[in-house]
Amino acid sequence: MIRRSPIAVDKYVLDFNANEVSTQIIKVTTEIKGRDVLGEIIHNLPPCFDIDPPAGRMAVPSEVRVTYKSTMYPLEFDYDNLEFTIAERFRNEEDLDAKHLIKINLLGAPSRPIRKARNMTSDNTEPSCDICTLKFSEDDMNRIPLVLSCGHTLCRGCCQTLKDRSFNRTVSCPTDRSVTRGDVSKFIRNFCLINYLRETTQKPPVFCENPFVPCFENPNHEAAFYCSTCDVDFCESCFQTVHSHKILANHKVVPIADKPFKPTMCVNHPTKYVRYLCTNENCVYQPKLFCDDCMPDHRCPYTTDYFDRISENRGRVVKISNFIKQVDTNVMPKRKKVVMDCKASFSEDDRTIQMCYEKIEAHFERLKDTAIARFGCFLENAKDTAQRELNRIEKNAGEISKLRKDVDKFLNRREGFLDIEAMVDKEYEVRKKMAVFQRDMPKFSDYDFKPAMTEFPQKFPQPENDASRKRPAFDPNEIISIDD
């Protein structure tokens, strides 16, 4: 059950023209009488926006004026992620009780040239982190470029490592020793580098019969971008073709993964966005999704914030997608290599195996046929075991890849986040498939080979320090008795 929001705003989207100076007013009201209500303004707007009152605490009711000055349009800024928040904050309380996120759209923003960043080398190689030297990537969470308070850029993984190793949980820049405080997940991304990576990694259109997100121009193309001006999805080639004319060149485009979420409109009040969700299936009050105006009439105690539930569910699906992606692209290839190395170690072409044959022939001349047959059977059994494990991995790899595509398809369609039970089931199915892998896959060097071959070689016992015991080296001067 949630408490009814004491603060209300009259709009959640502000549209400004990039070439015009304009002002919009947000009315902040409250229904609470007889006590003071405090609000707080939080935003990430660039200097071309004036806020009155400025960021910080404010008394409610009040009016907030947002003014856009087109003459101060910065060269480099992420205009696809402008956020303006009016949060409720009671006097003498430290935590935010609720917040109203207001999306700001800058329409017709001109395309700006991307200036070469500090981490970009002169030979046009891909920019990389100065600490780990790995190339920045928008796809790998740990390699996303983040900007420190001093202006230097490091990958997210190195920022987190520096913070974890610091006694006061801060990030100390290795270049100038300046300190950056706060949660690494809230550090500003270097969108200059990200845009550069996007431009230098352009891909041809993906043809498929049933794409996850179809291109508006060609339904058989997989969409890669969303044009906020056209309000449709495009693949890269179709976007370039459609927007090649000068009149359309200033349209705003974002990657399909960053496509803004469109809130649902209230059924009873078509001009209002849905703000709440009723989780009680047997609730007599309708509808289940409703706005602030419907709140007084919906007295069900099982009411939660609509945007919080969407954000929570989407975050869970993102984690599931990242987990399956990690299994598909990292765990499975490594596991396959281990098993292939294991299988190769039992090859009869290996010198170690050939020396074992020689020992058997020297020590058991009269029994060599029986001993060799038993040793060959041991090798075949070991290789068969490795092959069966390899076949199991190959089979599960294809199924896991399919599950990953299903989860990515669910994410890219950007709907249905209220019910992610099917996605959770896919995560459970992947974990169940990983559980069937045989944990112990010993190589030939892990076995205690006996020249007598009276029985199959047994694995060396594991000491307490878990260090593998090695086979004794072959002594060419060893006296061997045939009659042993």
Give me the Rg, rounded: 32 Å
**Which residues form runs of ≥5 with pLDDT under 50?**
90-97, 110-118, 120-124, 467-471, 473-484
The main β sheet shows up as:
5 strands, mixed
- What is the spatial order of strands in the main beta sheet? 2-9-8-4-6
Number of domains: 3
H and E string: EEEEEEEEEEEHEEEHEEHEEEEHHHHEE
User: Total number of β-strand segments?
Assistant: 22
Tell me, rounded to a whole number, the average pLDDT. 78
Work out the helicity level.
25-40%
Strand content: 15-25%
- What's the helix count? 7
Shape: elongated
Distance between the termini: 82 Å
Structural class: alpha+beta
Question: What do these coordinates show?
Answer:
This protein has helices at 156-165, 191-200, 236-242, 306-345, 351-363, 368-412, 421-435, and strands spanning 7-9, 13-17, 22-30, 37-43, 49-52, 56-60, 62-68, 83-88, 98-107, 145-147, 153-155, 171-172, 179-180, 188-189, 225-227, 232-234, 253-255, 276-278, 289-290, 303-305, 447-448, 458-459. With 484 residues, the protein is α+β, with helices and mostly antiparallel strands. The strands form 7 sheets. The chain has a 5-stranded mixed β-sheet with strand order 2-9-8-4-6, with no helix packed on it. Strands 1-3-7-5 form a 4-stranded antiparallel β-sheet, with no helix packed on it. Helix 4 packs antiparallel against helix 6, helix 4 packs parallel to helix 7 and helix 5 runs antiparallel to helix 6. The relative contact order is 0.07.
